[in-house]
Amino acid sequence: MKQHFKLLQIVLLAGALVLLVNGRFTQADHMPTPPPPPTFPPEPVTALVTPQAVAGDSTFVYLPLVLRPEEIGPWVDTQNRSQVVTFYQTEYLASEGVPHGWAGNVGSCNPGSTSAAFKEAVLRRINFFRAMAGVPAVQGFAADYNSKAQAAALMMSAQNDLSHSPGTSWACYTAAGAEGAGSSNLYLGVYGPSAISGYIYDPGGGNYFVGHRRWILYPQTKFMGTGDIPPTSGKAAANALWVFDGNWAGPRPDTREDFVAWPPPGYVPYQVVYPRWSFAYAGADFSGASVTMSKNGSPLSATVSPIYDGFGENTLVWEPGDSFGGAPGSDITYQVTINNVVISGSPQSFSYQVIVINPGP
């Protein structure tokens, strides 16, 4: 199994310290430049975790999955405004403010563990974004992934730095922590559910292709792991989110649309609409693609980022010529049209609306 992990050693770096201001992320002035996110391993690997574990099996931590209202189903109908509002209020907001319950100590290099309720909150935040994007929920956290991610987060906090290949001279170094660092999204400055939102935001000049977002929304992923260190005296908070479960080589599951976009088509709370927009389609060639947009019927510019494949599904990223973050006084409709997406040798076009809403308190 360790040989499998060696194939995945240079994994995503969050690449930015962030401040959480009124539920929105603001880039700090002293952000480091991150290295590239990881490409897929050169050869298929077998699944590292499987869903056959039974209750009491110490290999897995089975937490409550997405506790959405029963009628919502496997993902959210984003064309239904009331369903989106309910889902935001019952899932996104419910994952905020949960006590971390951490019992470790950075000074003595004790990674400890966060509470089951806190891990559930992290899982709910992940599955909020996946359900809104129309992809299947992550089924749970694997205990082994959690343990190694926790050791990685401890190292990041203790060293006050980020690396997917930390050396043995790093504070609180362990082999398990190094393995976790090599298989995880990493964040310094935030932890828990806020870090998940930060990965979807994906700020920083080095993250123009939103690699962290692409791994969180990757349809094949069934299991993840989280490691979280809250801020302590003189040390920043840290998160390590284990994102590789070996299922990347498996068949692509059904998704709500054939593509995976963020923000997705339909109604979207303004709190989770970020400056970079993305459109993923497995195997698509976006090298000649273009994006046109309008806002409430008026033309809106869109700056397309350079194409960078090999991280999750092939993805087109662009930045609309608009500002995001403030609560809209009324719903705002953005029309998106993407032309010349080459799929199996044939150019195709896609058109959809994103309606930014204020879901209320």
Give a verbal description of the structure.
The protein is of the alpha+beta class and 361 residues long. The protein has 7 helices and 16 strands. It has helices at residues 2-6, 81-92, 116-133, 143-159, 175-181, 193-201, 211-216, and strands at 18-21, 24-27, 60-61, 140-142, 184-188, 223-229, 238-242, 260-262, 266-269, 277-280, 290-295, 298-300, 302-304, 315-320, 332-343, 346-357. The strands form 4 sheets. The chain has a 5-stranded mixed sheet with strand order 3-4-6-7-5. β11 (290-295) and β12 (298-300) form a beta hairpin. It is globular.
What structural class do you assign from the helix and strand content?
A: alpha+beta
The H-and-E topology, N to C, reads as HEEEHHEHHEHHEEEEEEEEEEE
Number of strands: 16
Low-confidence runs of at least 5 consecutive residues = 1-36, 41-71
How much beta, percentage-wise? 15-25%
Strand order in the sheet with the most strands: 3-4-6-7-5
Computed CA radius of gyration, to the nearest angstrom = 19 Å
Q: Give the overall form.
A: globular
Average residue-wise pLDDT: 83
- N- to C-terminal separation? 46 Å
> Helix fraction?
10-25%
Number of helices: 7
**Sheet having the most strands:** 5 strands, mixed
